[in-house]
Amino acid sequence: MYYIGIDLGGTNIAVGLVDEEGHIIHKDSIPTGKHRPYQDIVKDMAMLVLKVIKDAGKDIKDVKSVGIGSPGTPDNEKGILVYANNLTNFVNVPLRAEMQKYIDLPIILDNDANCAALAESVAGAAKGASSSVTITLGTGVGSGVILNGKIYGGFNYSAPEMGHIVIELDGEPCTCGRKGCWEALASATGLIEQTKKAAQQNPDSLINKLVNNDLSKIDAKTAFDAAKQGDKTGQEVVDKYIYYLAEGIINVINIFAPEVLVIGGGVSKEGEYLLKPLRERVYKYVYFKEEPQTKITTAKMGNDAGIVGAAMLGR
Amino acid sequence: MYYIGIDLGGTNIAVGLVDEEGHIIHKDSIPTGKHRPYQDIVKDMAMLVLKVIKDAGKDIKDVKSVGIGSPGTPDNEKGILVYANNLTNFVNVPLRAEMQKYIDLPIILDNDANCAALAESVAGAAKGASSSVTITLGTGVGSGVILNGKIYGGFNYSAPEMGHIVIELDGEPCTCGRKGCWEALASATGLIEQTKKAAQQNPDSLINKLVNNDLSKIDAKTAFDAAKQGDKTGQEVVDKYIYYLAEGIINVINIFAPEVLVIGGGVSKEGEYLLKPLRERVYKYVYFKEEPQTKITTAKMGNDAGIVGAAMLGR
């Protein structure tokens, strides 16, 4: 059997036909046109699904289910996308019912962080592992936990929100209402803030030169780029960021002891430059210091994670 | 079928015959005599098992397994108690092999925090719940996670160490090597330290009177007792302690979303006096604010938790 996976984003809708092992047989995408009524968007999405199946030379009878991964708050029990902050008109959208007007297949919803974790578990960095946690460093800190091939969501499917572990009592206010959440320190957003602050305090640093003294151009790569060229301020920012990241990852390992811990998102593209000092700190301070230890690695699925993870929801 | 549960402690060894539902049919105990060679202790333990079965009017054929709950680091795979800090001569003790010299039954080992969590899940405060986390506030902060009736231990069985979630970056040094672990702030030990400090800074407080100005007599009840009698310093200690406890519990709920969160250990005997302000803070700040919410309650199994949990390891 095959599975359809849909990565429903604010810019594009990507659809793929995926096999049992998580390989994409064929994929295609269209612009979301997010300001349109949701009915129009869902219709386009359904038509793209039918096109992908046809272009792959398959029939709808070969497809077991359609999985949709989205940001925000999908409620799979009710089949509703409760809210998606990057989709203008998506508030309490009956996504399942609307899709089933065009496609008579089971429609499964989940959020993008869970889909990314599932994709890494089925076909990526955590393939073959009995348990994995995938941490995605982006605007926030996303997280997904896969135990024995299944997404762990807690009894009300609100877990895991690892980004909202307070690691600094009375720290900076977080959007969730608490103070000192890990997300504020370890997300790409946090890294950018830390880089900007260091650049302001050290106007002669290479960070400033790399962005032609326009601090609004600082991104999650800037401090790493400066550090690699020997800049002291850049290195200090990177060291401190890795410390923040490590403290949270040690927490996660002490809590879950996953076989594999996968780090995704833009920052993970730094590869070994990020992983080497991170692993050193984590293995030094993790509670359980014997072998076997949790393997720490970067995500492998890249942009396909959304499609593959959504497809594997039906497996 | 019945199950034997052994609570192997530094002072006493308690043995119980337990039914499928986690009810104790018959129990007995003997002093551990912890300074003796382990061979002698294990022999006494095995004899007590046989006595309990006989006194209950049952036969060894009615018993499916023998579970042993202990502090420290039991390794069930190898059948070895790697280390138990409150048992003098227990370093790499081949507990299973030694027991099987006397009793030809499966011998299962696990640590006391997991046994307490399993007991609450089978027959206590989390009975009937699909998932639960039990937090035990004692010398440290113990934790056990039960998912669908099974103990969750991670791939290397080192999880969960919730007490060793850093919640205060660069806080007080912890025995685990990190700084600012939850355990240092939320354990009974932490509460006692906080109470002593407040008593020193406020010599006129009721706390001092309650212990006749001998601060070494302060225990985990003292601040609560003072607060209940209207003492300002006592109330401040209690409020701050509940804040520390709540911050960690919100972390745990954000991570696991368990159906029930059980609080055990001496501090939990404060009951609603502890639970009411704790729940208020937790439900206000937990990430997922919709219904259904994790139920927060105190442990019900008391001193029997060790026996029942150890017995249910074989279920």
Largest sheet of chain A: 5 strands, mixed
How do the strands line up in the largest sheet of chain A? 3-2-1-4-8
Shape of chain A: globular
The averaged pLDDT of chain A comes out at: 96
Structure description:
2 copies of one chain form a homodimer. Chain A is 36% helix and 22% strand. With 315 residues, chain A is of the alpha/beta class. Chain A has 2 domains: 2-118 and 304-312, Nucleotidyltransferase, domain 5 (2-Layer Sandwich), CATH 3.30.420.40; 127-299, 2-Layer Sandwich (Nucleotidyltransferase, domain 5). In chain A, the strands form 3 sheets. Chain A has a 5-stranded mixed β-sheet with strand order 3-2-1-4-8. A 5-stranded mixed β-sheet of chain A has the order 11-10-9-12-13, sandwiched between helices. The longest helix of chain A is centred in the last third of the chain and has 25 residues, at 232-256. Chain A is globular. The A-B interface holds A 129-131, 147, 152-162, 164-169, 171, 176-178, 180, 244, 247, 250-251, 253-259, 284-285, 287-288, 290, 292-294 and B 129-131, 147, 152-162, 164-169, 171, 176-178, 180, 244, 247, 250-251, 254-259, 284-285, 287-288, 290, 292-294.
